[in-house]
Amino acid sequence: MCLSLVITLYNEAENVKPLLEKIRATLQVCDYEIILVDDGSTDKTVDEVKKYADEHVQLIILNKNYGQTHAMAAGIDAAKGEYVVTLDGDLQNDPADIPMMLEKLTSEGWDVVAGVRKKRQDDMIVRKLPSLVANFLIRTLTDVHLHDYGCTLKVFRKQIAKNLGLYGQLHRFIPVLAKLQGAKITEVDVKHHARLHGKSKYGLGRTFNVASDILLMLFMQKYLQRPIHLFGTTGLFTFLIGFGINIYLLVLKILGEDIWGRPLLLAGVIFTIGGIQLITIGILAEILIRTYYESQNKKPYLIREIFTRNEKDS
């Protein structure tokens, strides 16, 4: 298997047939599979996939709506191809860009080729402006310099895609997760089309989640494998401040000063206890990290059904 296309679907019934037709027209000379992951759709998406599926299509039906990140993880886990492509199921990404991106990846030795929607066909206030802000923050704070983190269309080498570790809502941070593995990443301009059918699942509310996710990315970049360096260093610094305050107050006490009731006394106690707590958290985080790496490989999603053309009753 050369190529695995991973496409997440949520209430995209009207887009299924034209999406499959575009992919088939584009990838006629390549050995490929199409992994469609239904993320708890409440319309006729599943029925439409089963109706128009051919031997290249595998449909993974999740137990409920887990969100795009977990749906994407389910598709990548099932992928068998040497190269993995992710794209949206709303026809805004163009499958015709895939051969060009794959050629760039293989001929130039990249691990990830990410798409950049140069002429983005979206609403300025609801989607473009929040995206520009989010892209600037992610690019600046993570030091991974891409222009369009929100573009789902990307091509990966299999070993990178399989080890992304997608949880929560981290799909927009895929380039950062790939960089944590040492991946070589580049970007190319790709086409972007206006949505013709269905409704966008994106809103301003999701933009506010980016800030907390950026903090997680910064932690993963710098301290995931050594959390004691973050909590321990901060805790030691805090403890020393508290210790210094307490020594100062002790000297005043020896000199006959009345220190009871002073705000500085309370500050010394808080800094000392807070420093001890941070150091303790760092040690516990180190233990948790070791448990994380050594524990069983559990998935954050449940699969209700896997459908293929030759196995309709699976």
UniProtKB/TrEMBL annotation:
Please list the GO biological process terms of this entry: lipopolysaccharide biosynthetic process
Glycosyltransferase 2-like domain: residues covered: 4-164
- Keyword Membrane on entry: yes
Q: What are the transmembrane regions?
A: 228-252, 264-289
Q: Which UniProt keywords apply?
A: Cell membrane, Glycosyltransferase, Lipopolysaccharide biosynthesis, Membrane, Transferase, Transmembrane, Transmembrane helix
InterPro entries assigned: Glyco_trans_2-like, Glycosyltransferase_2, Nucleotide-diphossugar_trans
Q: Which molecular function GO terms apply here?
A: undecaprenyl-phosphate 4-deoxy-4-formamido-L-arabinose transferase activity
- Which cellular components does GO assign to this protein? plasma membrane
- Please identify the protein, giving its name as recorded: Glycosyl transferase family 2
What organism, scientifically named, is this protein from?
Chloroherpeton thalassium (strain ATCC 35110 / GB-78)
